Amino acid sequence: MLERIEEVFESIGLSLLIILVFSAAVLRFFGIDMSWSTDLAQLSFAWVCFIGADLAIRKNRHMGVDMLVNRFPVKVRNIIYLFNSILMLCFLLVVVYYGTSLCITNSQRMFNTLPISYSFATASGPVGCLLMVFTVVGNIKTYVTNLIKKDYTNLNRSNTEGGEIL
Question: What would you measure as the largest C-alpha separation in the chain, in angstroms?
Answer without folding.
Answer: 66
